[in-house]
Amino acid sequence: MSIFSNKPKVSPVPAPAPASDAVAGAAPAGPAPVEKTDAQWRQELSPEEYQVLRQAGTERPYTGEYWDTHTEGTYQCRACGTELFTSREKFDSHCGWPSFWAPLAEGTVRYIHDRTLGMERIEVRCAACDSHLGHVFEGEGYGTPTDQRYCINSVSLKLVPADGATAGADD
Predict the structure, then answer these.
(1) Residue 89 CB contacts under 8 Å (≥ 6 apart), including other chains
(2) What is the CA radius of gyration of the chain?
(3) Which residues are catalytic?
């Protein structure tokens, strides 16, 4: 089931919860919770990381480290290190942010209805530390297996290259 409608779809994303702003929580087998105080997050993260990860900000398009990276590897949450996405699901959407058609595994991210800026969107957060990652969109015509685009801030991620790969743009 899709997070956007009740019609069946090939999708790792659970259907929306009916009476809450939370679309879906972490699966029982998800990552262990990471709990830190606001002061700890401010100490550990750069001001830009804090603004995006902890205050649901957005980096400017085409400015992030990974929007045009083609390095093979795994993308972790920059705040807590939880593995979230892989390069196998990354695709070129030309939107200015890294785009993935699915998370690494069910339960690694959670979804929240986002009604800010006068829009209806689905926010994507790390299931372990509740950091803001970006948003997921559906039905944009990219032809991905899930028909979804996880539009994720580069500053929310850390790429761990696969053995023998080197990280960098235009790889």
Answers:
(1) 100, 101, 102, 103, 104
(2) 15
(3) 151
Structure pTM?
Answer: 0.79
CA 80 to centroid of chain Cα atoms: 13
Structure tokens at 115: 């009604």
Q: Which pLDDT tens digits describe the chain residue by residue (171 residues)?
A: 455 543 333 333 333 333 334 444 434 456 778 889 999 999 999 999 999 999 999 999 999 999 999 999 999 999 999 999 999 999 999 999 999 999 999 899 999 998 887 888 999 999 999 999 999 999 999 989 999 999 999 999 999 999 876 655 454
| 3-state class (DSSP) for residue 51 | helix
Strand-pairing partners, residue 159, are: 75
Look at phi and psi of residue 164 and say left if phi exceeds 0, alpha if psi is from -120 to 50, else beta. Answer: left
